[in-house]
Design goal:
Elements: H1 2-7, H2 9-18, E1 38-39, E2 45-49, H3 52-55, H4 68-74, H5 91-104, E3 109-113, H6 116-119, H7 131-146, E4 150-156, H8 162-168, H9 176-191, E5 197-202, H10 204-212, H11 227-254, E6 257-263, E7 266-269, H12 275-298, H13 303-315, H14 328-334, E8 341-344, E9 348-353, H15 364-367, E10 370-373, H16 390-403, E11 409-414, H17 429-448, E12 452-458, E13 477-479, E14 488-490, H18 492-503, E15 505-506, H19 509-520, H20 523-545
Parallel strand pairs: 2-3, 2-12, 3-4, 4-5, 5-6, 6-8, 7-9, 8-11, 11-12
Antiparallel strand pairs: 1-15, 9-10, 13-14
The structure holds 1-deoxynojirimycin.
1-deoxynojirimycin is lined by residues 51, 54, 202-203, 263, 344, 413, 465, 474.
Length: 557
């Protein structure tokens, strides 16, 4: 039976993609090189993305149930300025306008996620299916396709139905595997005739670590040293189950692909001639991306995680490791469940070894025995954690190639934010520079032989940035959140990215050097328009609400 299944052509393809031997990554070979003029292979896919809770708004409309993020954001003190995603960009109502923007930029794809509680308000299939929620995604998908934009769909971008958290403890409970599979199966049934690129999870590292270990994200639990490992274990099982569901029930009819999107910052040894630094840097990457990628590609957790967490657990006097164990059946079920790998990448850290004594205070972070450092010369234009280190991107992509048998990769997130002080500056010079340099390093990686098929700028719009609320703006388009209509304004980087897309890369020095100037030609006048519009919406808000709107003073132009 197993042999018959493996002989089908689509499975042979998947095997070739996924189950190739891993090679050693050469940590000591660090070529930086100068800017590379050239283009991407024909058919390379360009786009941008967003996610349901970050953009849709309409949190309680048309029968949607509550997610853990609705509940978390409504608690005081969890989110910067107590912002919520209740309305956000109102993408639920404005998706047609957004597709017009995408069309103008000549996107090949758009990445978005489906809100689980919009489809199953109580999380569970047998309760009821919300047809209005289905209709919203039907309309979105159909309109994208009508405009020749391929939908790339994430099934879980952190918005677990609240009922499942309350009743079962969310991802701490293995029952999520079947509930998530039911949800995914319904999405395949209802949308799979048109959607051909599925991602099970987005950045499960954050769901596990920030959701169940540090508590900075929903559901806000602080289960130090165990919560993240347990959540990740169930997420990996759920991913595998959904991949198998697609494989056995839908693939032959629908002919799509199922992958996962992993966030992966790069870790560079402080001293590449020092073996201890190299090992520490490798641990950083293995505890981050390898935690999820290694089971999915190679069948089990990275050896270094098993060793370190196992040893620390023993030193704590625990009888078993805090890192759960996959049975041998589970290992073979999980191995190879990847048709393509989504990579979200933003930044890099220098890494060096540091021993943390084991004890009761053990956590995911101390288990790794390392410290993260940054070079103060690295540009740091936006979010506190986000330093622009373009060469790290090429290193990461080459690492993926060697470790997981050169899988098909879609870059699912890459971009930079701006701090709130500059949030009305549409002349986003630093974002153009970031895109230019990062996309160029991706081009070098493609020349190195890394199998990157597409790139997704993060994000199309300014949006709700989780615990940072609306204070960090990643968008190509500025959104005026003070205005009820949430108008979008193009930043200069829209023009810049448009040129990269239309040239499919960086054709030659003369042309590329003119792009920034051309992109900034109109942004000063757009700035003035935006400033005037914002003053008006601030005024309208005051009149309507009869009270001053709370907004940081430094936000004014
Ligand atoms: C990764 C998350 O998937 C995304 O939702 C978020 O906006 C970016 N990180 C930037 O923080």
């Amino acid at each position: 039976m197993l042999l018959q299944r493996m002989l089908k052509p689509q499975h042979v393809l998947v095997l070739v993609l996924c189950v190739s031997a891993s090679e050693d990554f050469d940590w000591t070979k660090s070529e930086r090189g100068s800017f590379y003029y050239g283009t991407f292979p024909t058919g390379f896919s360009w786009g941008a993305g967003g996610s349901a809770y970050q953009t849709e708004g309409a949190w309680d409309k048309d029968g949607k149930g509550m997610s853990i993020w609705d509940v978390f954001a409504h608690k005081k003190g969890k989110i910067f300025l107590n912002d919520t995603g209740d309305h956000s960009c109102e993408g639920y109502y404005k998706f047609k306008d957004d597709i017009t923007l995408m069309k103008d930029m000549k996107f090949n794809h758009y990445r978005f996620s489906i809100s689980w509680p919009r489809i199953f308000p109580n999380g569970i299939k047998t309760d009821h299916i919300n047809e209005k929620g289905i209709k919203y995604y039907d309309d979105l998908i159909n309109m994208l396709l009508d405009n020749n934009i391929t939908p790339i769909v994430t099934l879980y971008h952190w918005d677990l139905p609240q009922v499942l958290e309350e009743k079962y403890g969310g991802w701490q409970n293995v029952s999520m595997v079947n509930y998530f599979n039911d949800f995914a199966n319904l999405c395949f049934e209802r949308f799979g005739d048109r959607v051909k690129y599925w991602m099970t999870f987005n950045n499960p590292w954050s769901s596990a670590v920030e959701g169940y270990e540090t508590g900075e994200h929903a559901p806000g639990l602080k289960l130090r040293g165990t919560g993240a490992y347990k959540a990740a274990h169930h997420i990996i099982k759920a991913h595998a189950k959904v991949w198998h569901t697609y494989d056995t029930q839908w693939r032959s009819k629908q002919k799509g692909l199922v992958g996962i999107s992993l966030l992966a910052d790069w870790g560079e040894p402080v001293d590449i001639t020092n073996q201890r630094d190299i090992e520490a840097a490798e641990r950083y990457v293995q505890f981050y991306m390898g935690w999820f990628a290694t089971p999915i590609f190679n069948g089990d957790y990275p050896q270094v995680m098993k060793d370190y967490i196992g040893r620390k657990s023993a030193q704590q006097g625990l009888g078993i490791s805090r890192l759960p164990v996959f049975s041998s059946q589970e290992k073979s079920y999980i191995k190879g469940t990847c048709d393509f790998l989504g990579i979200g990448h933003f930044t890099t850290r220098y890494i060096t070894q540091k021993n943390y004594p084991s004890g009761r205070g053990n956590s995911y972070f101390t288990d790794r025995d390392l410290v993260e450092l940054v070079d103060p010369r690295w540009p740091d234009p936006g979010s506190e954690w986000l330093y622009s280190v373009p060469w790290g991107f090429r290193r990461l992509l080459n690492f993926v190639k060697t470790q997981y048998g050169n899988p098909m990769i879609y870059v699912t997130e890459n971009g930079v934010s701006e701090k709130v002080q500059r949030c009305t500056d549409l002349c986003d010079d630093w974002r153009m520079q970031y895109f230019k340099d990062y996309i160029n390093e991706m081009l070098k990686a493609v020349k190195d032989g890394v199998n990157v098929k597409g790139y997704t700028a993060w994000s199309l719009l300014d949006k709700f940035e989780w615990d940072e609320g609306f204070s960090e703006r990643f968008g190509l388009f500025y959104v005026d959140f003070l205005n009820k209509n949430k108008p979008r304004y193009p930043k200069a980087s829209v023009q810049y990215y448009k040129r990269i897309i239309s040239s499919n890369g960086f054709p030659n020095q003369r042309e590329v050097e003119s792009w920034k100037r051309k992109a900034t030609e109109t942004c000063s006048s757009s700035n003035q328009l935006l400033a005037a519009a914002r003053r008006k919406s601030q005024q309208d808000n005051k009149e309507q609400e009869g009270m001053p709107k709370v907004w940081p003073v430094h936000d004014e132009v």
